[in-house]
Specification:
The complex is a heterodimer of chains A (235) and B (616). Chain A is built from five helices and eleven strands. With 235 residues, chain A is an alpha+beta fold. Chain A has two domains: 105 residues, Pseudouridine synthase I, catalytic domain, N-terminal subdomain (Alpha-Beta Plaits); 114 residues, Alpha-Beta Plaits. In chain A, the strands form two sheets. In chain A, strands 1, 2, 3, 4, 5, 8, 9, 10 and 11 form a nine-stranded mixed sheet that branches. Chain A has a two-stranded antiparallel ribbon with strand order 6-7. Chain A starts with a strand and ends with a strand. The model of chain A has no long low-confidence stretch (mean pLDDT 89). In chain B, helix 5 packs across helix 17, helix 6 packs antiparallel against helix 7 and helix 9 packs parallel to helix 10. Chain B is an alpha/beta fold. The chains are: A alpha+beta (235), B alpha/beta (616). At the A-B interface, helix 1 of A face helix 1 and helix 9 of B. Bound molecules: iron/sulfur cluster. The site of iron/sulfur cluster has 12 residues of chain B, from loops.
């Protein structure tokens, strides 16, 4: 079986293309470079290719992952070069490796890190950044952080998101603006959307949530080894 | 204002933001600083519609391969985006360099259907560019237009500096080159227009003044600039095998209406259906060679990675080597895991064989276009298809296991009576019967869809003098057919709204006086009139009544054959005498043969060679 995983970046205007658009883009790019993807059996065969974790529309990412299977074995280095030549600006392949593990990566990913930047000026809503940063420690020291979560059925359940937060810190930047980095649960079992965390944080700090001034970047996705100790990036 | 920053702040608020970002594979971004002439190709409808239009890909390619000129794209933003742009004060911009349209040298609108005219004005308004030619001084871009509806450009004459008539792949780069020279020399706009007017296929409306008599009838298109020609001939691209066809067409990032590779196999049509404008204005037939088609198909599939390929023409079965061509394309697609789609194939044994092969178990999408319900009326419109053709095709389809068919008809055709409508219902009922018979007398799941459009008389056709049915007549006919077809089990009925067909007729045959109405309609907020959900008849009524212009007359009045028509001085090759003789033959229900059986004298020969003449 020729299974591979590739890591790519999604940047610039490409942040506005959806999950399905991106899948189609990769499918066509493989076809352009003459790599045939393995297809599922059955009435309506589709290529064996999937993203490890979907990315919200509008986010950029430095660490997206795509798993796929090809009909013929491939030289990963050459495939990477050819793919990059066939992809539009804003989508770039950083690395490709063969994937031996049986279990799909989407079921093994455990954690993702994000950087959040706040725009001020033109598009941004001003808020008291100092107050926000000062609130972080207190926010994290809470035993539990409860929120109402709407289920698919429409019912609300109470959820504690504190265990899903591995890290949260501020980075002051040279130009004086603030940004936050966070590591949170990701994956099919347990997933924390960074905006859920931010909403809770702003409310804890007593600030209104500046939805339109956020720029969110997913930096990396990690697997949890069996012993649960250290997290390792997929690639 | 920085377009990029503003865009980023509003794109997440609109539906399908990728419509507005550009950056697709094979889109071309040239440096504005080193490009003499920057042209914006403007499609007055949504991205998904415009990107499915082959003409865009061709013109984009022929301009961008030249040095010193650039073609960028712009589409009509959907209403949600328009609202955000207006709120933020963001002017309409090109997708490639995100340059506000008002900073481009030339903006060229493509005129594919009359119902997009309000979008053209709205796009100018969104670009913060004055609508009318006379309000735009030297500092504003030139506004050009081309495409099929340019064959009667008069309703847009107040807004457009120049029109390109006929095929654009040679004239557009020529025009842009001329512009580059003029820009270097530093002249006035008027000087450029005078030089352009000397180029074949260019119509500068401000160089002509319509003259009306007291009754308001057009008596003359008076030439008021000596640089302007008496008559303007459409341009014809003679050589279909040259390198004007794009092999690396832009691959959209979002799914569009026709999301596939496409090769045009020939241009023009020799059948001579009398209602069909495309059949008249794209003459003569020019085929692309099989070798060339194959080569383009192959390199397009490789370069784009599309999973589907399609051929394009007005009537694919008429291509002289259609059988070998289709077999070769089938092979090619199989090798590349792509599917082949063959629109506008006539239903004969060959096409059934092909469909069996390429569609396999998927037996959907069978269509037949008898256009009229009786043989008499089909003779009037010169649609060369008999009842027998229809039924034998249906028998074949049924025996091969197809379970549905869509029939296209037109109502309101000249000389039509209710008998002809009865004929529509009969054909549908007979097909259902055929299916029943094949199914041992049981109804089964065979389904017939009858789709009816409303006839619109179009310029440069033998029916250009005809009156259109009134909206009430159309609606009566819709009701009548609905009632008749309701009684036939297994048939469903679709029809087009009468008020849009009416408006289409008004603008198709309109004159310069309609400019006022268009401007008013734009002010009132008319846009996307071709979209059922956005069309607002009441606003158009208001636009007509406020300007005191009688729209109905344009659609409903029959024209005298001797009268001067607003498009008379535009020479599309087919002569007025020929159209007249066709109109008379129509009234006598006499048919005219396909000119592949021998020339019938349409007149296009004066302008170009007819390679298919007498080929059958
Ligand atoms: S000139 Fe004759 S052969 Fe040529 S398109 Fe017209 S009718 Fe056909």
């Amino acid at each position: 079986m020729n299974r591979y995983v590739l890591k790519f970046r999604k940047e610039g205007y490409m942040r506005y293309i959806s999950h399905l658009d991106l899948l189609r883009l990769f499918k066509r790019s493989f076809s352009r470079i003459g790599v045939r993807l393995r297809h599922s059996e059955g009435f309506n065969p589709h290529p064996k290719m999937s993203f490890v974790q979907p990315l919200s529309l509008g986010y950029i990412s430095k660490g997206e992952y795509l798993e796929f299977e090809t009909v013929h074995p491939q030289d990963v280095a050459s495939m990477q070069v050819r793919l990059n030549a066939a992809l539009p600006e804003g989508i770039s392949v950083v690395a490709i490796r063969t994937e031996a593990g049986k279990k799909a990566l989407s079921a093994r990913v455990a954690c993702a890190s994000y950087t959040v930047q706040f725009l001020d000026g033109d598009g941004g809503e001003a808020f008291d950044a100092g107050r926000l940063c000062a609130a972080i420690d207190g926010f994290l020291q809470q035993k539990e952080i409860l929120r109402e979560k709407k289920q698919k059925t429409g019912k609300f359940v109470t959820q504690d998101i504190r265990p899903m937060i591995y890290a949260l810190r501020e980075n002051s930047q040279e130009n004086g603006s603030v940004s936050l980095t966070m590591e949170v649960s990701a994956g099919s079992n347990c997933n924390l959307n960074p905006e859920v965390l931010l909403t809770e944080l702003f409310s804890y700090a007593g600030l209104s949530y500046p939805r339109e001034s956020l720029r969110i970047c997913r930096d990396e996705m990690y697997l949890q080894p069996a012993d649960g100790s250290v997290k390792i990036p997929i690639i | 204002m920085n377009v990029n920053e503003t865009l980023n702040s509003l794109l997440l608020r609109v539906e399908k933001p990728a419509r507005y970002i550009g950056g697709e594979l094979y889109s071309v971004v040239k440096d504005p600083k080193t490009t003499a002439t920057r042209f914006a190709f403007a499609f007055p409808d949504m991205y998904e519609i415009g990107m499915s239009y082959l003409g865009l890909q061709i013109l984009y390619h022929v301009v961008n391969r030249e040095e010193g000129m650039a073609c960028e794209r712009v589409f009509a933003p959907a209403p949600d985006m328009e609202q955000e742009m207006r709120k933020a004060g963001l002017p309409l911009y090109t997708l490639e360099n995100k340059t506000p349209l008002r900073e481009m040298d030339i903006i060229g609108f493509t005129l594919q259907y009359e119902m997009s005219y309000s979008n053209i004005l709205n796009m100018l308004s969104l670009s913060q560019i004055p609508l009318r030619v006379k309000e735009r001084g030297e500092e504003w871009p030139l506004i050009a237009a081309g495409g099929p509806c340019a064959c009667n450009p008069e309703p847009l004459a107040d807004f457009i500096d120049l029109f390109l008539l006929g095929d654009g792949e040679e004239s557009l780069p020529q025009l842009l080159k001329l512009h580059g020279q003029w820009k270097r020399e530093g002249g006035m706009k008027k000087e450029f227009l005078e030089r352009a007017a000397k180029m074949p296929g260019v119509y500068v409306p401000s160089f002509y003044q319509p003259v009306y008599d007291e009754a308001g009838a057009l008596t003359e298109m008076k030439k008021i600039n000596s640089a302007a020609p008496e008559r303007i001939e459409k341009r014809i691209t003679a050589d279909m095998d040259s390198d004007v066809f794009p092999q690396k067409s832009i691959v959209p990032l979002i799914s569009v209406v026709h999301d596939r590779a496409v090769v045009e196999i020939f241009r023009g049509c020799s059948r001579g259906c009398r209602f069909c404008q495309a059949g008249m204005i794209y003459r003569p037939v020019r085929e692309r060679s099989q070798e060339r088609i194959f080569e383009i198909a192959q390199s397009q599939l490789c370069a784009t990675g599309y999973e589907e390929m399609s051929i394009l023409s007005l009537s694919s079965s008429d291509y002289s080597g259609i059988e070998p061509l289709v077999s070769r394309l089938m092979c090619l697609c199989r090798e590349r895991d792509a599917s082949l789609s063959l629109p506008s194939l006539r239903l004969d044994s060959f096409s059934f064989r092909v469909m069996e092969e390429i569609q396999g178990y998927k037996k959907t999408g069978l269509t037949v276009a008898p256009e009229a319900g009786t043989q008499r009326l089909r003779d009037v419109i010169n649609k060369n298809i008999t009842d027998n053709d229809i039924y034998s095709a249906m028998e074949q389809a049924i025996s091969l296991g197809w379970t549905s068919v869509k029939l296209y008809f037109m109502i309101g055709l000249p000389t039509e009576t209710y008998e002809d409508l009865d004929g529509i219902a009969e054909i549908a009922a007979n097909i259902v019967e055929l299916a029943k018979k094949a199914n041992g007398g049981k109804q089964g799941r065979f389904h017939v869809t009858v789709s009816v459009s409303n006839f619109v008389p179009k310029p440069h056709t033998p029916f250009q003098w005809c009156a259109q049915n009134t909206r009430e007549e159309f609606e009566d006919k819709h009701r009548y057919l609905k009632e008749k077809l309701r009684k036939v089990k297994g048939v469903s009925f679709h029809y087009h709204a009468a008020d849009t067909s009416h408006l289409e007729a008004v603008f198709a045959r309109g004159d310069r006086r309609l400019g006022e109405v268009l401007a008013r309609a734009c002010e009132l907020g008319c846009h996307f009139d071709g979209w059922h959900e956005h069309f607002r008849a009441s606003l158009w009524e208001e636009a007509f009544s406020k300007t005191g212009i009688d729209g109905d007359a344009y659609a409903l009045q029959a024209r005298d054959e001797e009268s001067i028509l607003p498009w008379d001085m535009l020479d599309y090759g087919v002569t007025k005498q020929y159209l007249q003789s066709e109109w008379r033959k129509a009234q006598a229900a006499c048919v005219t043969d396909d000119c592949r059986h021998g020339c019938t004298g349409c007149g296009i020969k004066r302008l170009a060679a007819c390679e298919m003449e007498g080929s059958l």
